[in-house]
Amino acid sequence: MVRTDNSSLDRILGKCLKGQEITCEEGASLLQARGLDVWIIAQAADELRRRTVGDRVTYVKNRNVNFTNVCTMQCGFCAFSVLPGRGGYTMSVEQVKEEASTAKKQGCTEVCLQGGINPALDYRYYLDICKAVKDVAPDIHIHAFSPMEIKAMADKWGVSVEYCLDALKDAGLGSIPGTAAEILDDGIRRVLCPKKISTGEWVSVVKAAHKKGIPTTATMMYGHIEDETHRARHLDLIRSIQKETGGFTEFIPLSFIHYNTRIYRHPPDGLAVRQGTTGLEDIKVHAVSRLMLAGAIDHIQVSWPKLGPKLAQMCLDAGCDDLGGTLFSEKITSSAGGGWGQSLSETDIRDLILGVGRVPAERDTIYRIVDELEAF
Length: 376
Ligand code: SF4
Fold this sequence. Notes:
Elements: H1 7-17, H2 24-31, H3 36-53, E1 56-60, E2 62-65, H4 93-105, E3 110-113, H5 123-136, E4 141-144, H6 147-157, H7 161-171, E5 173-175, H8 186-192, H9 199-211, E6 216-222, H10 228-245, E7 248-255, H11 262-265, H12 279-293, H13 304-307, H14 309-315, E8 322-325, H15 332-335, H16 346-355, E9 359-363, E10 369-372
Parallel strand pairs: 1-8, 1-9, 2-3, 3-4, 4-5, 6-7
Antiparallel strand pairs: 9-10
The site of iron/sulfur cluster has 11 residues, from loops.
């Protein structure tokens, strides 16, 4: 590997490349790197990616179904939700079924169901939409309901999270998106999303799911009011959960899309809210995610709706090995002003992967290979 004129960087990357775990402080120091050092960090992350998963880059054929945008949580970074009575929408069970039918026709292996915290819905609706998907597409994997939705559902139902998870699993739930994590730091959450579940509650729902054999993804939304130390602590927490449960399938950094959000347009007095991230910063966050999570989480996903296909492709050379999904009907990022559309075709995804000299492979939600181009 290239040596730098920065002895601290050399030492930390040396640890990574020897397979040693780096500390939270060392992760924060990598996240503070600037200029050409970022490319050296990316190179080390790319090497660990190669050793961990080889040259395969995966994607999943999935369809997003955001079944309601009515929500009472008022997270400052969200431009998707609408308060009750203000003209939002809620899909009927029959409409969700039609979406699942469309997903099946499109060749999807996964339907991703997520929505706002809508007080008009109770547990019966959530169970019914899972059953409706399975009715029309029994082989489709249901990836659904953030830890926030699960906790709100259980509380409204008056049952434990564990009971709620059992009921959802019986209705067809296969795995849970690890969204609603944002930054797992209660100081940040009090400003960014004060009504949302706390760090401890997020961790508790995720661990409960893992203990029941329900895998989840893990996410981190970065580039708003947090700093590099918060990001490193978030990665450290995700790493420690994974060591205990082994239930995370992948880690997905999600850059903040600021344009239409309340916290950016009308920040509380004195609060500095960033206009999202820079490209080099995105590359660095994905690379450091690979380095800090090495030995714990094998798959690092880059989100094309957040970064756009071209920058997402560059992150494939900075530690990432998964390009996420086709989505077909993405609404949450596009509502916030993300300009990369609601869908990316399988051909486009494969071209991005081939463009970095790697091997495209369609996977299912839990990383079983469905279809792979021959290695070349
Ligand atoms: S991020 Fe989710 S919980 Fe927060 S306001 Fe938006 S829809 Fe509601």
